């Protein structure tokens, strides 16, 4: 066996140094080493003369040697093909065809930015199903069947008795999180939601939301305000003005809507802000005790705040988009405008 190994070592040096300038020389190399009467097959035949305890090691050596020969043969073929192409009529110095590079959708850009900002504050991302049952979408969030607030959301029902629907908000993800996890809870819930509305420049039958929830001991409205102040300054810049207005939501008490100074007109008044200089961007408030109790969370020990915003509205203000329909029309002229926002 030692003689065979020495022979293989010599052959490896010959193979590494082998060259070929035409197809005939390449074919001669193949016949010499890989042909039916070639060196590789002849050496493989020596396996019968190798002691049993050495057969495994010899087999591995031969496999490595065969792979070396095959790699060299393929390398010679590729080199010969490259020479043929270089000798052809093609001008290798012509500029290549441009490969188009895609861009992220503006909604994806805003979603990623929102997630990035809230992660700085320790918020995790939670996701849930877009087809929901009535309990998680409405009842658990303090909207029983006869609650008038249900009329505020025109719902796509898939099945009734029991009720299944396309979720109208990502509050259902908050519900599913509180169902499985006990405080402290600090999450944001991005996702697509559906409402039966007439499609126009300002409304659509589906849109995207980001809702947030923070439940722990001693959470206050001041914590809510400072969280949202931080978000707005990070998203829109340090010069934007902010105000809170009292509002009503069945799942929070007290509740407030937050406005920012209109970025389109600089607060002077335009069609976007309805000539008020302010644009409402989100609703918020302290989590209603009933919501906490629905999930077995002691409302006397824990408090929390929640907020929700539409991504399309944030995107409209950040990128000056004046028509909600543009987000879903797949118009490449519109989408290419965001190539520099990657």
TrEMBL record:
SUPFAM superfamilies to which the protein is assigned, alphabetical: Class II aaRS and biotin synthetases (SSF55681), tRNA-binding arm (SSF46589)
MF term (GO), any: magnesium ion binding
Highest taxon of source: Bacteria
Cofactors (names): Mg(2+)
GO CC term, one of those recorded: cytoplasm
Biological process according to GO: phenylalanyl-tRNA aminoacylation
Main localization, broad class: cytoplasm
Aminoacyl-transfer RNA synthetases class-II family profile domain span: 110-314
InterPro entries: aa-tRNA-synth_II, aa-tRNA-synth_II/BPL/LPL, Phe-tRNA-synth_IIc_asu, Phe-tRNA_ligase_II_N, Phe_tRNA_ligase_alpha1_bac, Phenylalanyl-tRNA_Synthase, tRNA-bd_arm
Enzyme Commission designation: 6.1.1.20
Keyword S-adenosyl-L-methionine: no
Cofactor note: Binds 2 magnesium ions per tetramer.
Catalytic activity: tRNA(Phe) + L-phenylalanine + ATP = L-phenylalanyl-tRNA(Phe) + AMP + diphosphate + H(+)
Keyword terms, alphabetized: Aminoacyl-tRNA synthetase, ATP-binding, Cytoplasm, Ligase, Magnesium, Metal-binding, Nucleotide-binding, Protein biosynthesis
Subcellular location: Cytoplasm
Residue positions binding Mg(2+): 253
The protein's assembly and partners: Tetramer of two alpha and two beta subunits.
HAMAP family membership: Phe_tRNA_synth_alpha1 (MF_00281)
Family: Belongs to the class-II aminoacyl-tRNA synthetase family. Phe-tRNA synthetase alpha subunit type 1 subfamily.
Protein name: Phenylalanine--tRNA ligase alpha subunit
């Amino acid at each position: 066996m030692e003689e065979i190994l020495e022979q293989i070592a010599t052959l490896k040096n010959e193979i590494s140094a082998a060259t070929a300038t035409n197809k005939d020389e390449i074919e001669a190399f193949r016949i010499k080493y890989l042909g039916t009467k070639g060196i590789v097959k002849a050496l493989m035949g020596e396996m019968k003369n190798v002691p049993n305890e050495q057969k495994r090691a010899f087999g591995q050596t031969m496999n490595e040697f065969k792979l070396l020969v095959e790699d060299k043969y393929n390398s010679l073929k590729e080199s010969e093909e490259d020479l043929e192409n270089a000798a052809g009529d093609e001008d290798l110095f012509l500029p290549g065809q441009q490969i188009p590079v895609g861009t992220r959708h503006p909604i994806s850009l805003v979603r990623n930015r929102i997630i990035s900002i809230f992660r700085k504050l320790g918020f995790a991302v939670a996701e849930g199903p877009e087809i929901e049952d009535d309990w998680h979408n409405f009842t658990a969030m303090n909207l029983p069947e006869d609650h008038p607030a249900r009329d505020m959301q025109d719902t796509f029902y898939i099945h009734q008795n029991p009720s299944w629907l396309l979720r109208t908000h990502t509050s259902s993800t908050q519900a599913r999180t509180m169902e499985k996890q006990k405080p402290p809870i600090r999450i944001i819930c991005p996702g697509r939601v559906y409402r039966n509305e007439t499609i126009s420049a300002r409304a659509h039958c589906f849109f995207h939301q980001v809702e947030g929830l923070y439940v722990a001991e001693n959470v206050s409205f001041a914590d809510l305000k400072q969280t949202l102040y931080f978000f707005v300054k990070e998203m829109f810049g340090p010069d934007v003005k902010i105000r809170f207005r009292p509002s009503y939501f069945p799942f929070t008490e007290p509740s407030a809507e937050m406005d920012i100074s209109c970025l389109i007109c600089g607060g002077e008044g335009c069609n976007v802000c309805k000539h008020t200089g302010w644009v409402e961007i989100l609703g918020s408030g302290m989590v209603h005790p009933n919501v906490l109790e629905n999930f077995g969370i002691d409302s006397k020990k824990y408090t929390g705040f929640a907020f929700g915003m539409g991504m399309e509205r944030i995107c409209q203000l950040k990128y000056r988009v004046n028509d909600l329909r543009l987000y879903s029309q797949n118009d490449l002229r519109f989408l290419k405008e965001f190539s520099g926002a990657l």
